[in-house]
Specification:
Length: 391
C-alpha cells in the first residue's frame, strides 16, 4: 500500500476552483452580459435579430477570438476560457452564447488546428476582430447521418466548383466565412468529404432563407445555396478527403461548449427563480418559505452543479490533452436535459407570470430545447457514450 498520509506534490484542484485569470475573465463577461446584453434580450428575441453594436462589442472585448494566438490578434486564451465565456453569456442570453460558441469552439479552432500558415495569416486576424464564421455541415437529407451529405466539389484547374445546399447554418446571416463540407470524390464515400473555406463574396454562393425558430431566436440559422461556387484550391482546409475527420473531431469538442451553454442557461433560470421566490408573497409570506418551493430550488441547484461538473471536467480533460470524447457526450446530453428541466421548473415557480414574455424564464424555457438537438441530438450523444463503454 502506498503511504496515503503523504500529500502528493501537486494535489488536483477542485473542478470549480478557477485560476485568478479565469475568474477575472468570467467576471468581465458576466458584467458585460448583465449591463450590455440583458437590456436588449427581449427585443432581440422578438425581432429574431442580434444587435450589430453588441456583436461589435463582443469583438472589441476579445470574445470572438479567445483561443486565437496573440500573434494573430487574438486573446491567446484556452478552451476552458471559451467554455467559461459561453456559460456566462448563456445565463443572460443563450443566443449571444451560441454566436460566441460557434466562432470560438468550432470555426476558429478548426483553422488554428488544421489551417495552413497562409490560411491562418489570411483569416485568423479577421476572425479575432471583425469577421463572423459558420460551420456548414448539415443538409436537408443529412443531419444525424452527417456524412451522407450531397453537396459536391469538382476540381477545375486551380479551383473547386461546389454545388449543393446547406441547412441550419448558425451565424450565417452575419458570417463572412463558411467552413463548408462537400464531397470531392463521392466514389470514396465519406473519405471524399473535404472542408473548404468559402468566403461570402465567392461567385455562386448565396445565403438563403432564415429560419423562424422556437428559441435562440436572435441567433441566425440559414440555408446556404451553392451553385457552381468557385473556391480556390488554396482554400481547402487540411487535406482533400479529410473533412470527415475534421468534422468529427471538431464536433466532439464543440459539444462541451454546448454543455456549457445549457449549464449557463439553467443557472440563469435558477437565479431568476430564487430571486422571485424570495419576493413573491402568498398566504402572507414569501413563497421561498414553503418547503415545497425550497425542495424544487434545491433539486434545481443540485442538477445545475452536476451539469457544470461534467462540463468543466470534459473541458479540463480537453485542455490537458487527455481523451474526452465520452465525457463530452455525457456533458452535452446531461446539461441539455438539466437546462430543459430547470427552465421548466423556473416557469412553474413564477406561476402565471412565468408563462408570459414579461418575465425572462419563458424565453429560457424555449431556448433550452435546442440543446437536445444541435451538434448531435441526445440520441446521438447516447450512441457515442454506449459505443465507448461497450468497446
Ligand atoms: C437552431 C439550429 C442550429 C443549427 N446549427 C448548425 C450549424 O451551425 N451547422 C450545421 O452543420 N448544422 C447545424 N444544425 C443542424 C443540427 O446539427 C441537426 O439538426 C441535428 O444534427 C439533427 O439532424 P436532423 O435535424 O436532420 O434530425 P434527424 O437526423 O433527422 O433526426 C431526427 C430524430 O431521429 C433521431 N435519430 C436519427 N438517427 C438516429 C439513430 N441512429 N439512432 C437513434 N435515433 C436517431 C434523432 O435523435 C432525432 O430525434 C442546427 C440545427 C438547428 C435546429
Amino acid at each position: 500500500m502506498p503511504n496515503i498520509t503523504e500529500a502528493p506534490a501537486a494535489s488536483p484542484q477542485p473542478l470549480t476552483v478557477l485560476s485568478e485569470v479565469e475568474k477575472m475573465f468570467q467576471d468581465a463577461i458576466r458584467r458585460f452580459a448583465r449591463e450590455r446584453i440583458a437590456p436588449h434580450v427581449r427585443a432581440m428575441d422578438e425581432a429574431g435579430l442580434f444587435r450589430k453594436d453588441l456583436l461589435h462589442e463582443m469583438f472589441d472585448l476579445g470574445l470572438m477570438g479567445i483561443e486565437i494566438p496573440e500573434d494573430y490578434g487574438g486573446q491567446g486564451g484556452d478552451f476552458f476560457q471559451a467554455v467559461l465565456a459561453v456559460e456566462a453569456l448563456a445565463a443572460v442570453d443563450p443566443s449571444a452564447a451560441v454566436i460566441v460558441d460557434v466562432q470560438n469552439t468550432i470555426a476558429n479552432n478548426v483553422i488554428i488546428r488544421w489551417g495552413s500558415d497562409d490560411q491562418k495569416r489570411r483569416y485568423l486576424p479577421k476572425l479575432a476582430t471583425e469577421m463572423v464564421a459558420s460551420f456548414a455541415l448539415s443538409e436537408a437529407g443529412s443531419g444525424s447521418d452527417a456524412f451522407a451529405l450531397a453537396t459536391h466539389a469538382e476540381k477545375r484547374g486551380d479551383h473547386y466548383a461546389i454545388t449543393g445546399r446547406k441547412l441550419w447554418i448558425t451565424n450565417a446571416a452575419e458570417s463572412g466565412l463558411f467552413l463548408l463540407f462537400a464531397n470531392a470524390d463521392p466514389s470514396q464515400g465519406h473519405r471524399g468529404i473535404t472542408c473548404f473555406l468559402v468566403e461570402r463574396g465567392f461567385p455562386g454562393f448565396q445565403v438563403g432563407k432564415k429560419e423562424d425558430k422556437l428559441g435562440i431566436r436572435a441567433s441566425s440559422t440559414c440555408e446556404l445555396i451553392l451553385d457552381d461556387c468557385l473556391v480556390p484550391a488554396d482554400n481547402v482546409l487540411g487535406e482533400v478527403g479529410k473533412g470527415y475527420k475534421i468534422a468529427i473531431e471538431t464536433l466532439n469538442e464543440g459539444r462541451i461548449a454546448i454543455g456549457a451553454q445549457m449549464t449557463g442557461l439553467a443557472q440563469g433560470a435558477l437565479d431568476h427563480a430564487i430571486a422571485y421566490a424570495k419576493q413573491r408573497q402568498q398566504f402572507g409570506k414569501p413563497i421561498a418559505d414553503f418547503q415545497g418551493v425550497q425542495f424544487e430550488l434545491a433539486q434545481m441547484a443540485t442538477e445545475v452543479e452536476a451539469a457544470r461538473l461534467l462540463v468543466y471536467n470534459a473541458a479540463r480533460l480537453r485542455v490537458a490533452g487527455l481523451p474526452f470524447v465520452t465525457e463530452a457526450a455525457m456533458a452535452k446530453y446531461f446539461a441539455s436535459q438539466v437546462a430543459e428541466d430547470t427552465a421548466s421548473r423556473a416557469v412553474e415557480i413564477f406561476g402565471g407570470v412565468g408563462f408570459t414574455k414579461d418575465y425572462p424564464v419563458e424565453k429560457l424555457y424555449r431556448d433550452a430545447k435546442i440543446g437536445r438537438i444541435y451538434e448531435g441530438t441526445t440520441n446521438i450523444q447516447k450512441l457515442t457514450i454506449a459505443k465507448q463503454i461497450l468497446a
